[in-house]
Amino acid sequence: MDLSSHAAIVIGIFVGVVSTSVQSLGLTLQRKSHLLEEQQPSQRPPYRRRRWQIGMGLFITSNILGSSVQIGTLPLVILSPLQASGLVFNSICASVLLGEPFTLLSLIGTVLVCVGAGLIAIFGTIKEPVHNLDELILLLYRRGFLVWLVGQGIIILFLQCVAQMSNNSRRSGNSNRWRIIRGTAYGSISGVLSADSLLLAKSAVELLIRTVVTGDNQFTSWPSWIIVISLIAAALFQLFYLHKGLKLCSTSVLYPLVFCVYNIFAISNGLIYYNQAGRLSTLSSSLIALGVLILLSGVLALSWRLEQSSQPFVQDADDGPPMDDEESEHTHLLTEPPSSPSVSDGWLRYLNVKSVSFIRREPSPTLPTRYGAIPRRRTMTETREILAELESESDSSSPTGSHDRSGQLERSNGTGQLALT
Q1: Where is the domain boundary, 59, 74, 89?
Q2: Taking the CB of residue 156, how many other CB atoms lie within 10 A of it?
Q3: Which residues contact 82 (CB under 8 A, 6 or more apart)?
Q4: pLDDT tens across 266-322, in order?
Q5: Within 10 Å of residue 361's Cβ, how many Cβ atoms?
Q6: What is the value of pTM for the model shown?
Q7: Does some domain include residue 82?
Q8: Nearest by Cα to 133 from 223, 233, 213
């Protein structure tokens, strides 16, 4: 290996370390933006938040520039562990920026994720020669790959249903657990679409290389542009579902999960699309399966760590909706006793008792309301008696006369339940 090759590897490793760390920083900033916005009474859309804009910009830039340099300068044996190092940066950013505790379980989960990701990436990739457009179309229309595409669609639909059902069931049981389920479902969809984006990007790059090297333009027919358009659509949807997952789930769980799903489906896409299943040895298949199990164990360890450390505020479903202004006003009046034993205070106490009877009526068997009861309307006679007594109170200055009128009003109510103390 000459000096230029050594320099290229050094540059590739440096760019890889920087890009993976910046990518983790971008994801963590997006997650922090979502967490801070949830605490605001009026929430803004993500594209209007400066922290989210910076995070998304860092994530996209590091993916485009970092991947381009690494693929062109690093061999697979170095590139695969370097990609797994992003999981370590992700744990560090989550602990520093999000305040998530880095416990022994965090360390174990991170190590398991890195080891599993390295096994999957090293033993799961097989070199393939450059194809032209006609060869790619023949590979695309193979029955095995079409069945695999239908299977991917079913998997994505199933994950979408899981996310929807967990959204409908988030009030039952542990709400934080349902949020994690929704976030991991969206993250899994993002991982599947990311693997499809890689396959489409590889096909587009093969067409571009064929065009530049041989001079045979591969972009003169519509199938080539369908590949490019599909690549853009898959990349955008991948970012969309990743964004939805970040709103619900911590990056300590989401990033390793997306990486795991991405590697599994990327390997499967290569084996099925390029018909490489027979070229993968039994040892490689076993090590890939072992890597998947180790990586999933690490993801579960990180998820359990979050469940042990997080204590989210969840309103109990039995508590009902919060009190509105009307209920708060009644509660305020009932909890403040009169400052002096005057007749006007007696009238206030009388109206407070009326307010209690207004709220605590027996429920109607046919017309339930928000409070579960229908208040009885005052009759016109009761209303006129109250108004008359209030007018008499304002004209009279004798405490004794006022007390007598209060007693008359008490006797005028036929229920006998509103006795004044």
Answers
A1: 74
A2: 17
A3: 13, 16, 17, 20, 70, 74
A4: 878 888 888 777 777 888 888 888 888 887 788 777 767 655 555 443 333 333 333
A5: 14
A6: 0.61
A7: no
A8: 223
